[in-house]
Amino acid sequence: RKLFRVMDSRLDGLYPSKGAYKAAILALHCLTPEAKQRPRMSEVVEKLEVIQSIKDTSKYSQRDGPGNGNGNRNLNHSPQN
Q1: Backbone torsions φ then ψ of 10, nearest 5 degrees
Q2: Biased composition, Low complexity: where in the chain (predicted)?
Q3: Which in 11, 15, 49, 77 has the greatest CB count within 10 A?
Q4: Cβ distance 80 to 40 under 8 Å?
Q5: CB contact set of 25 (below 8 Å; sequence gap of 6+)
Q6: Quick one: angle between helices 17-30 and 41-52, nearest 10?
Q7: Contact 37, 62 (CB under 8 A)
């Protein structure tokens, strides 16, 4: 429940909640004070790839989301030149 307090409300639930939870847990592991306890970048990449493939019954997967038609939303807000 606390996870949803830190999620960007502009996303309006357009993400799989299971994936968001796993990403939050991964972020916490990356912030461990003891460097040797943190995951290696290869592990982070591997876990992010798994998270990216997660689908569930959130609003994200129930409607045809914006983007490329498969529910994936482009969240890259960098300006285009």
Answers
A1: -70, -15
A2: 71-81
A3: 15
A4: no
A5: none
A6: 170
A7: no
